């Protein structure tokens, strides 16, 4: 399948502490193994077969780097969901969405997000099981969504397979705001679903499917092929983990 990719590389209002700690203008420019994180992400999505890559970022060094690597640039919106909508407006579907701080991103994970999204789905959302993350990074401390089939963490990989995926963007913004309060996410689905969640009977796949139905899209869970797909650079400890992982992989 031919697809486009959107890389979210906006800067938080007031700057980013990780960028300041590393002495660069934006987090996307933080170097890992001698290469800016944005460059690594661009390389991964291009290696997966993306025919068009758009980077949502402010004008300046990040935009210059994106254009130097043959990417288009769109101005970010106030929040991630708005930036995704702008990217979708530019490219149309199908669109793979990820973030510039996904420094460990692999082409295989991108392809898994695409190929793992069913043909009858509008949206695919990749998450990793806690067991998979702990196996790869035992000391990792993350926020998990607890469901009947285990504890899950997001991977910042979304596949907007059809134009109807646009209906989900506003809802995703609400989910992101409540990502540390999963009960509030489930509560939006109605009393029956909330009861199933409270009694430990709701799986993550069922929750995503029900949420999709509630907002008028067909949404599907895509299980990450590696626990490392859930590791991004949100804080200095994450960056240290990423650098250690790469050093270990290089032997």
Automatic annotation (TrEMBL):
GO terms for molecular function: phospholactate guanylyltransferase activity. InterPro entries: MobA-like_NTP_Trfase, Nucleotide-diphossugar_trans. Residues 26-132 form the MobA-like NTP transferase domain. The keyword Transport does not apply. Coiled coil: none annotated. It comes from the Bacteria. Pfam families: NTP_transf_3. Keywords: Magnesium, Nucleotidyltransferase, Transferase. Its EC number is 2.7.7.68. The keyword Flavoprotein does not apply. This is 2-phospho-L-lactate guanylyltransferase. It is an enzyme of class 2 (transferase). Gene3D superfamilies: Spore Coat Polysaccharide Biosynthesis Protein SpsA, Chain A.
């Amino acid at each position: 399948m031919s697809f486009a990719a959107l890389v979210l590389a906006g800067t938080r209002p007031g700057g980013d502490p990780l960028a300041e700690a590393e002495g660069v203008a934006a987090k996307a420019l933080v170097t890992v193994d001698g290469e800016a994180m944005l460059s690594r992400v661009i390389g991964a999505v291009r290696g997966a077969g993306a025919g068009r890559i758009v980077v949502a970022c402010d004008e300046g060094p990040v935009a210059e780097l994106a254009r130097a690597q043959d990417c288009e640039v769109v101005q970010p919106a106030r929040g991630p969901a708005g930036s995704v909508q702008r990217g979708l407006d530019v490219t149309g579907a199908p669109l793979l969405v990820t973030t510039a701080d996904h420094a460990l991103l692999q082409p295989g994970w991108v392809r898994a997000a695409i190929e793992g999204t069913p043909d009858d789905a509008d949206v695919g959302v990749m998450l990793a099981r806690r067991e998979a993350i702990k196996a790869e990074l035992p000391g990792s401390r993350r926020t998990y969504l607890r469901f009947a089939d285990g504890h899950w963490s997001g991977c910042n990989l979304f596949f907007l397979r059809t134009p109807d995926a646009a209906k989900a963007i506003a809802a995703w913004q609400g989910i992101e705001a409540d990502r540390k309060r999963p009960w509030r996410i489930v509560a939006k689905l109605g009393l029956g679903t909330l009861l199933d969640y409270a009694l430990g009977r709701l799986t993550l796949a069922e929750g995503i499917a029900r949420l999709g139905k509630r907002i008028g899209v067909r949404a599907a869970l895509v299980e990450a092929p590696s626990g490392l797909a859930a590791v991004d650079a949100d804080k200095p400890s994450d960056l240290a983990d990423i650098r250690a992982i790469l050093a270990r992989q290089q032997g």
